[in-house]
Design brief:
heterodimer; A: 192 residues; mainly alpha; 7 helices; 0% strand; disordered N terminus; B: 156 residues; two-stranded antiparallel sheet; 6 helices; 2 strands; 3% strand; elongated
C-alpha cells in the first residue's frame, strides 16, 4: 500500500465529521446566546473530554464521560426542582449541552455515519425451517461481525469528532468572550 | 484506487505553481506578523508552530483545528495582548486564516476538476491538492512574515 493510500477515515469522511462538529457547536451557541453564555461549560471541561477521547474507546467516552456529565447535570436540576429552589442556570445549560452532544453521537449524524459503512444483515432465519440451526449460526456470525465493525468505526470517528468539536467550541467561546466580555465568567470565577 | 501518473503529477505541480503565483497572501503575512510578533520578544515560535502543522498535516482539518485551538486558548485577562484573536478591520487574524484556508480548499476542488480527476481521488483529489496548496500558502505567509520581521515595522 502506498503512503498516500486511503486512510481509515477518508478526507471526505473527516470533512463530514468536521462540519457535524461545527454545526453542533454553532447550534448550541445559538441556543445559549445572551446572558446564559456565562453558564456554559468551560474550556477545562472540554479539554478533559478531549484527553479522554484520545485515550479511551468510543463507548467508554460516551458512557463514562458524556453520559456521566449529563447524569450529574440532570440530577442537579432535579434536586433543585424537588427542593423548590431555583435551578442554577449553569446546570440547566449543562443538561442542554451534554444532551445535545449525546444525541448527535447515538442518534444523529455520527450514528448515521457509523451505520452507513456497515454491511446489511442477512434476513433473520424463520423458526422451524429446514436448516434452522445452520442459518441461525450464520446469522449470529454476521451479526457479531457487524457489531465488531460498528465498534471499529465508532472508535475511529470518536477521537476525530471530539477533537473537531472541542477546537471549534473553544474558538466559538473565545469569539463570544470578545464580543460580550461582561457576560462570560472567567475560568477562576467558574471554579470558585 | 488510482495510481500516481507522472504526467498528471507534472500537470498538478504546474497548476499549483500557477495558483501560488496568482495568490501571494502578502497581506496575511503582514497581519500575522502584526498580531504575533509586533512588540513581542517571542517572534518566531507561533509561526514555526503553524508551519510545522501545515507541513506535517495528513488531513486538512489538522490545520483548521490548530488555528481554532490557538485562538481558543488565548487568555481573556485584560493585561494579555491578543495574538491570534487580534482584530484588524473587524476580523480576527485567526479567522482570516480560516477564511483563506476555506478558499484554498474550494480552489483545490476547482483544480481537481481542471485535472479531470474524481474529487475523492487519493492522489489528485480535492484534499491532497488542498494540502499541497496549504503548504504553498504557509510558505508565502511565512516569507512575508519574516520580511516584516526583518524590516521591523510591518510595512509592505
Amino acid at each position: 500500500m502506498s503512503a498516500l493510500a486511503k486512510p481509515a477515515i477518508s478526507h471526505e469522511d473527516d470533512e463530514l465529521l468536521l462540519s457535524t462538529a461545527e454545526a453542533v457547536v454553532d447550534e448550541f451557541f445559538q441556543q445559549v446566546r445572551g446572558e446564559r453564555l456565562r453558564d456554559i461549560p468551560g474550556r477545562s471541561q472540554l479539554r478533559g473530554l478531549l484527553g479522554y477521547a484520545a485515550n479511551h474507546p468510543a463507548q467508554r467516552v460516551l458512557e463514562d464521560f458524556i453520559r456521566h456529565q449529563l447524569t450529574r447535570a440532570v440530577r442537579a436540576v432535579k434536586a433543585a426542582e424537588d427542593d423548590r429552589s431555583r435551578v442554577r442556570p449553569k446546570d440547566r445549560v449543562a443538561v442542554i449541552f451534554w444532551q445535545r452532544l449525546e444525541e448527535e453521537i447515538v442518534r444523529g449524524r455520527i450514528f448515521n455515519w457509523v451505520e452507513k459503512g456497515l454491511p446489511n444483515l442477512p434476513e433473520r432465519p424463520k423458526a422451524r425451517s429446514a436448516n434452522t440451526r445452520e442459518l441461525r449460526a450464520a446469522f449470529n456470525k454476521a451479526r457479531k461481525h457487524r457489531e465488531q465493525l460498528r465498534q471499529e468505526r465508532f472508535n475511529q470517528a470518536m477521537p476525530l469528532f471530539v477533537r473537531h468539536f472541542v477546537c471549534h467550541y473553544c474558538y466559538r467561546l473565545k469569539q463570544a468572550e470578545i464580543r460580550n466580555p461582561t457576560l462570560v465568567a472567567t475560568e477562576e470565577e467558574k471554579s470558585s | 484506487m488510482s495510481e500516481v501518473q507522472p504526467a498528471r503529477l507534472v500537470a498538478l505541480a504546474r497548476l499549483v505553481d500557477q495558483y501560488l503565483d496568482q495568490n501571494t497572501f502578502a497581506e496575511t503575512g503582514r497581519l500575522l506578523w502584526q498580531a504575533l510578533a509586533s512588540g513581542s520578544d517571542e517572534k518566531m515560535s507561533q509561526l514555526r508552530g503553524l508551519q510545522n502543522v501545515v507541513y506535517s498535516a495528513t488531513r486538512f482539518s489538522d490545520i483548521i483545528d490548530f488555528i481554532k485551538n490557538q485562538m481558543g486558548k488565548e487568555s481573556s485577562k485584560p493585561d494579555r495582548k491578543p495574538r491570534w484573536t487580534k482584530e484588524d478591520g473587524g476580523e480576527m487574524v485567526g479567522s482570516r486564516l480560516l477564511r483563506e484556508l476555506g478558499q484554498v480548499r474550494n480552489d483545490a476542488a476547482k483544480l481537481a476538476a481542471e485535472l479531470g480527476v474524481s474529487p475523492d481521488d487519493p492522489h489528485f483529489g480535492t484534499f491532497p491538492i488542498a494540502l499541497r496548496l496549504a503548504r504553498g500558502w504557509v510558505r508565502h505567509v511565512a516569507a512575508h512574515y519574516l520580511y516584516c520581521t526583518a524590516k521591523g515595522n510591518g510595512g509592505s
